[in-house]
Recover the amino acids of this structure.
C-alpha cells in the first residue's frame, strides 16, 4: 500500500515551491542587509535613546534592548519580530490553504480517492512545515553571509549553541502560529479563517506581550498566549536558559493539541459542494 | 441466479441545519454489477448529495452502503474507493498542472498501477491536449481531464455526476461510446447522474427519480415509458371546440395534463388508466358541434415522465395512479 500522505505533500510543495522560494529569498536578502548594516558604535548610541522609550514599547522587544552587541541586535531585529517577518505570511497562507481547495472544488478530486482525510491534512501540514524550514534556512543563510561581509562582527563573540537554540525556539513559535491558522482552516471559509486567525493572533500578542500593564487580577491570561512562551531576550542577551526548554515544550504541545483538534474537526466535517 | 449487487444504498439520510433541511431523506436503491443506472432529478433534488455521501465527502445522518456485498462506512473506510472512478458534478482541477501531471497525481492516490497506454488512447479519442496547462483549457477540455481521471483505471464502478457537462455533441457521443466499450470489456457498473434526460434514456437501463431528497420512482426505462403517461395529440375543428374539450377534461378527466394548448390543437399527457375512456369520449362526442379532426397517440419520452414528477398537485394525483400501475 502506498503512503499517500507523501503524495499530497509532494503535490503541495510542487504547487507552492516558487512562491515560498521567492518569499524566503526576499527574507534572506533582508537579513543579509540587516547584518551587513550592524555597527556596534552606531547602534550603541541608540541604546540610550531606547532606554527612554515607554515600557510598553520595550515590552514589544522582550523588555531589554541592546543594539550594541550582535546578540542584542539579532534578538531585536530577527527573533523578536519573527511574528512580523514570517508569522503573518505563514498564517495567511495556511489559513487559506484548505478553504481555497474547498472553494475551488479541487479537494473533491483528491479525497474521493482512497486516501484518508488525515493523510490529506498532514500532507498539507508537511508542506507548511517545509515552508517554515525553508524560511529558517534562508534566514540563516542571509545572516551567515551578512556576518561574513561585515568586518565589525566577530564570530567568536557569538554563542553558537544559544543561537541554534533560539532558531529552534523561533521555529517552534512559528509552528504554533501555523497550527492555529491550520486549525481555523479546517472548518471555516478562506476569509473567515484568515480573519479569525488574525484576531486570535492579535489577542495572543497583546496578552502575551503587555500582560505587565494589565490589571493584576487578569494577568493569568498571559499563560494562554503563545507569545508568553516565546521571549528570546534572556537567552540571547544574558545567556540564561531558564524556562527555555519548558517554553519550547509548551509551544510544541500547543501545536500538537491544536493540530489534533483541527484534524478531528476536519475528519468529521462535510465537504460542501 | 440473482445478479451480484455492485452498490446497495439503504435508508440513506443526509440532513442539514439540525435536520431542518433534508437533502436526502431515507433513500434506498441498488445497482447490479454491470448495470447502467441513471439518477435523475432537478437541481437541489439530492443527486449530488447522494453521490458525495457514497464517496465519503459528506457525513451521513443514517443509512447503510454496501459495495460488492461489503458494508462500508464512507468516512472511515477508504479502500473501497480503489474500486470507484468518479467525475464530480463541479470539477475542480489544479489549473497550474497539465493533464499528464494531474493524472499522475491522481494515479498516485490509488493503490495499483495505471495503464498509461490506455489513458493516451482515450485522450486521443477525446482530442485532449495532454501537455497544455489545464488553466488554459476550455471548460469542455477540462471536463475531458476529469473523464480521463475517472477512466484511467479499470474501475469496477463508475460514479458519474453530469459527466458530459461542457462537451460538444460529438464528444458526448464519443464519451458514451468509450463507456460502452469499457463496459463490454470489463462489465463495470455505471451510476450516472444527469439532468440531460435524453442521455439517461439512451444510455441507462434503469433509472431512479429523486425529488426533494426522496426517491419517487425506480424502474427500468422501458417499463417507465410503456407503462407511464401517453401523449395524445388532438386537433379540433375550432378554438371553441378546444375550450369545450378543456372543460370536459377538467370535469371528467382531472388527472389528464394539458401539456400544450395552441388554438385548436391540444397535446395531452394521459395515464394508462385514462387512455381508453378519453379516446372513447373523443371519438363519440362532438366539440363545438363538430367531431375531432385528428388524433395521434405517442409514447411518452423520459422527459415527460420526469416532468410529471415535478409538476403541480394535479400531476401528483396522476403520478400516484401511474406509480400504482408501474408497481403492479
Amino acid at each position: 500500500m502506498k503512503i499517500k500522505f507523501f503524495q499530497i505533500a509532494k503535490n503541495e510543495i510542487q504547487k507552492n515551491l516558487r512562491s515560498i522560494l521567492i518569499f524566503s529569498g526576499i527574507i534572506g536578502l533582508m537579513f543579509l542587509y540587516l547584518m551587513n548594516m550592524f555597527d556596534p558604535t552606531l547602534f550603541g548610541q541608540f541604546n540610550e535613546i531606547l532606554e527612554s522609550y515607554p515600557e510598553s514599547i520595550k515590552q514589544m522587544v522582550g523588555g531589554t534592548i541592546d543594539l550594541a552587541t550582535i546578540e542584542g541586535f539579532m534578538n531585536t531585529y530577527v527573533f523578536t519580530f519573527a511574528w512580523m517577518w514570517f508569522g503573518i505570511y505563514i498564517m495567511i497562507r495556511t489559513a487559506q490553504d484548505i478553504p481555497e481547495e474547498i472553494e475551488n472544488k479541487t479537494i473533491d478530486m483528491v479525497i474521493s480517492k482512497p486516501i484518508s482525510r488525515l493523510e490529506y491534512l498532514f500532507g498539507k501540514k508537511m508542506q507548511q512545515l517545509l515552508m517554515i524550514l525553508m524560511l529558517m534556512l534562508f534566514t540563516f543563510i542571509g545572516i551567515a553571509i551578512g556576518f561574513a561581509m561585515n568586518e565589525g562582527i566577530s564570530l567568536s563573540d557569538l554563542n553558537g549553541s544559544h543561537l541554534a537554540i533560539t532558531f529552534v525556539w523561533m521555529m517552534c513559535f512559528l509552528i504554533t502560529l501555523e497550527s492555529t491558522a491550520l486549525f481555523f482552516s479546517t472548518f471555516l471559509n478562506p476569509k473567515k479563517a484568515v480573519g479569525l486567525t488574525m484576531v486570535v493572533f492579535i489577542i495572543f500578542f497583546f496578552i502575551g506581550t503587555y500582560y505587565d500593564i494589565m490589571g493584576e487580577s487578569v494577568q493569568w491570561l498571559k499563560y494562554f498566549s503563545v507569545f508568553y512562551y516565546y521571549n528570546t531576550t534572556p537567552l540571547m542577551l544574558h545567556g540564561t536558559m531558564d524556562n527555555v526548554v519548558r517554553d519550547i515544550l509548551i509551544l510544541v504541545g500547543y501545536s500538537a493539541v491544536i493540530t489534533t483538534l483541527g484534524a478531528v474537526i476536519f475528519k468529521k466535517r462535510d465537504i460542501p459542494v | 441466479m440473482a445478479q451480484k449487487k455492485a452498490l446497495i444504498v439503504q435508508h440513506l439520510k443526509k440532513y442539514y441545519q439540525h435536520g431542518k433541511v433534508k437533502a436526502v431523506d431515507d433513500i434506498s436503491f441498488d445497482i447490479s454489477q454491470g448495470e447502467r443506472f441513471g439518477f435523475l432529478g432537478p437541481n437541489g433534488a439530492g443527486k449530488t448529495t447522494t453521490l458525495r455521501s457514497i464517496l465519503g465527502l459528506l457525513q451521513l445522518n443514517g443509512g447503510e452502503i454496501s459495495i460488492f456485498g461489503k458494508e462500508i462506512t464512507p468516512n472511515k473506510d477508504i479502500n473501497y474507493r480503489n474500486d470507484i472512478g468518479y467525475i464530480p458534478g463541479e470539477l475542480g482541477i489544479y489549473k497550474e498542472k497539465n493533464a499528464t501531471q494531474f493524472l499522475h497525481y491522481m494515479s498516485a492516490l490509488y493503490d495499483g498501477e495505471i495503464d498509461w497506454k490506455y489513458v493516451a488512447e482515450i485522450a486521443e479519442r477525446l482530442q485532449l491536449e495532454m501537455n497544455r496547462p489545464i488553466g488554459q483549457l476550455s471548460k469542455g477540455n477540462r471536463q475531458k481531464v476529469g473523464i480521463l481521471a475517472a477512466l484511467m483505471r479499470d474501475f469496477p464502478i463508475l460514479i458519474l455526476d453530469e459527466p458530459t457537462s461542457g462537451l460538444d455533441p460529438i464528444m458526448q457521443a464519443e464519451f458514451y461510446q468509450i463507456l460502452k466499450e469499457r463496459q463490454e470489456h470489463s462489465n463495470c457498473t455505471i451510476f450516472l447522474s444527469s439532468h440531460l434526460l435524453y442521455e439517461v434514456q439512451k444510455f441507462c437501463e434503469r433509472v431512479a427519480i429523486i425529488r426533494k431528497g426522496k426517491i419517487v420512482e425506480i424502474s427500468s426505462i422501458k417499463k417507465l415509458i410503456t407503462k407511464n403517461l401517453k401523449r395524445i395529440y388532438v386537433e379540433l375543428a375550432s378554438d371553441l371546440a378546444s375550450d369545450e374539450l378543456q372543460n370536459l377534461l377538467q370535469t371528467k378527466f382531472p388527472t389528464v395534463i394539458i401539456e400544450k394548448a395552441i388554438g385548436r390543437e391540444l397535446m395531452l399527457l394521459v395515464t394508462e388508466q385514462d387512455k381508453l375512456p378519453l379516446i372513447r369520449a373523443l371519438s363519440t362526442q362532438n366539440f363545438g358541434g363538430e367531431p375531432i379532426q385528428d388524433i395521434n397517440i405517442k409514447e411518452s419520452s423520459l422527459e415527460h415522465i420526469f416532468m410529471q414528477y415535478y409538476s403541480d398537485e394535479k400531476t401528483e394525483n396522476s403520478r400516484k395512479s401511474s406509480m400504482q400501475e408501474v408497481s403492479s
User: Anything to note?
Assistant: The interface with chain A takes residues 48-49, 52, 55-59, 75, 78-82, 84, 86, 88-94, 96, 105-106, 108-111, 146, 149 of chain B (CB under 8 Å). The longest helix of chain B spans residues 169-186. Chain B is about 40% helix and 25% strand.
